[in-house]
Amino acid sequence: MNLADDTIRVSGPRGGTSTRLPSPYLLFLGDTTEPAYAKTAFGLRDWARDRCVGQFSLPGATVTTGLPELRPEQAVAAGALGLLIGVANIGGVIPPSWLPALLNALGAGLDLVAGMHSRLTDVPELQKAAERYGRRLFDVRVPPADIPIASGRRRSGRRILTVGTDCALGKKYTALAVARGLRARGIAADFRATGQTGIMIAGEGIPIDAVVSDFVAGAAESLSPAADPSHVDVIEGQGSLFHPSYAGVSLGLLHGSQPDLFIACHQPGRQDILGHPGLPTPSLELLIEQTVALGSLTSPAIRCAGVSLNTMHLDPAAADAAIEEVTRRLSVPAADPIRGGPRLEALLDACMA
C-alpha cells in the first residue's frame, strides 16, 4: 500500500499490468458542488497526502480538500508532475466545461490521470494536445482483459467486505482502516481495492464497476484468491444493494468476494440515496438482513462483524451518541474508523473472531 513510486498494478488471474503514475499530483475538483462526488480527491488527500501538492478548482466549485489552491503553472513550480481528476460524478463523465482547464494543464507541463468511465484517451482534443506538448494520459479505470467467470467454489483464507446503505459514505475508508488495524495487531491482512481511488492509494486492484457484468463476480474471486487460512483480505465495497444505479455491481462483488464477515457502513443523517432525491436511505437493519440473505449464496456462514459510521459531519459528542445508539440497537460493535479509539478496537476484535 501507498507505494512510494506510485506504481499501480491492475490485478488479473495471469498477472495483470503495471503502470507508474506521474506524482506528485495537483488534484482537479472541476466545478463540483457535491462533496460525495469529490471522493477521489479526498481519498488521495487522506491516504496519500505526501503525493498531493494542491488542488485546482473551476469557478462555481464549492467543494474543497483544504489543500492550497494552485493553477497548473504554480503546481508545476511546486513539483507536481500530474493533474489527477479527483471527481467521481454520476456516470463518470468528463464534461466539455472541463476541457479548457485540462488542456491548460497539459500545456503547463502536467500529465493527466483519471479514473472516470469516460477515458482521457477517448477525447480527441486531449489526445492531440498530449501529442503536441509531449505529455501522457493515464486512465486507471481499465480492467484486465483475462477475467474468468466466477466459479462459486469456496477458497482458503478469510475475507471481510465493506457494504453500505448508499454509495460514497465510507466503505473504502473503513476497509483501509480495518486492514491497517489488523496489520498493527500482527495479522497478515491486505486491503483489496475495487475502485479507482483505492487502486491509486494501494497500488493495485481491479476497477470492479468497469468490468462487464457477467465477469464481476469472477473479478472479485481473482482479486481475493485462495490464501493461507490465517490471512485476511479486507475488500473495498462498491455502491449499495439499495442503489438503483449500482446495485448490480454491489451484488456481483458480494458473491465473488465470498466474505466470511461484512462491515455495514452508514452515514447518520443521510436521508436520500445519493443522486436520487426522494428515494430514502435504507436502515442498517435492512442492509444487514439483505446482505446475509444474498451473500449466503456463495458464503453460507456470512455474518455481520459490526458497523462503521461516517460521523464527519457530527461534533464529538453527537458522534459518540450516534455510535453508542447503534451499538445498543444492533448488539454489534460500532465505530467511526477515522475517529479510532476503543470503539474501533472493539470492531477489530470482532473482525478477528
Gap between N and C termini:
25 Å
The geometry reads as: globular
**SS-based class:** alpha/beta
> What is the helix fraction of residues, given as a range?
25-40%
Provide mean pLDDT, rounded. 93
- Sequence stretches where pLDDT stays below 50 over 5 or more residues: none
Summarize the structure in words.
There is one protein chain. Helices cover 32% and strands 18% of the residues. The chain starts with 6 loop residues before the first strand and ends with a helix. It is built from eleven helices and 14 strands. A six-stranded parallel beta sheet has the order 9-11-8-12-13-14, sandwiched between helices. α3 runs parallel beside α4 (124-133) and α7 (216-223) crosses α8 (247-257). α9 links the parallel β12 (261-266) and β13 (303-309). The protein is an alpha/beta fold. It has helices spanning 39-47, 72-77, 99-108, 124-133, 171-184, 196-202, 216-223, 247-257, 284-295, 316-330, 342-352; strands at residues 7-10, 17-20, 25-30, 52-57, 82-85, 111-114, 137-139, 158-164, 189-192, 204-205, 232-235, 261-266, 303-309, 334-335. The protein is globular. The relative contact order is 0.12. The model has no long low-confidence stretch (mean pLDDT 93).
